[in-house]
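Researcher: I'd like a structural prediction for the single chain below. Treat it as a standalone chain; there are no partners to consider.
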Amino acid sequence: MYAEGITLTPLEAEDREQFILDNQAAFKYGATEEFGLRDDHFEEEGEIISRGTIEHSIDGGCAYRIRQNGRIVGGMVLRIDEATQHNELELLFVSPSAHSRGIGAAAWREAERLYPDTVVWETCTPYFEQRNIHFYINKCGFHAVEFFCRFHPDPHDPETGEENAYDEDEGFDGMFRFEKRMK
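Model: Treating it as a single chain, here is the predicted structure.
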C-alpha cells in the first residue's frame, strides 16, 4: 500500500535548516526506539547523524522535501551520476508522526519515476535500523550486497568518498549496503 498525494519538491534554501533538524529528529527517533537513550551510536553531541553529514549530502546531491497533499512529512537526498546512472539514495526520512502510512514507499516510487534512466540505485543503513532494512528490502526491492564492519571496513569514507582509514577505537558497529538494479 502506498500513501496518496505524495510528491517530491526540491529543497528551498530557506527550508535547509529545518530539513537538517527534521532529519536529525527522525534518525534520533529510530535509534532511541532501538536502544533507548544510550549515547554510543551518536555521531556528534546528541545526534545520530551529524549536521556535517547532512550538509555534505545536501551540497553534493539533489535534496527534496517529501510532501503529502502539500504538507511536509519528510525528506530525501539523491546523488545522481548522469554519466553512469549508478545513483545513490543518500538520505531518506519520514517524520516519526507519519510512520507506517506508506509515505516512504510512495516517496521512493516517486524518486524512481523522476530518474527513469537509473541503472542501479545504492544506499546504506546501520545494522541496527531494522525498520530501514525491512523497508529497503521488502518495500522498495533493494538487495543487501555488502556488510561493512570491523572485519570488512568500508574502503571509502561515506562523506567524502576518499580512502577510509579504519580505526577500531571509533566503535563502528556495522552498515549494510543495498543495491537495486533497474536495468
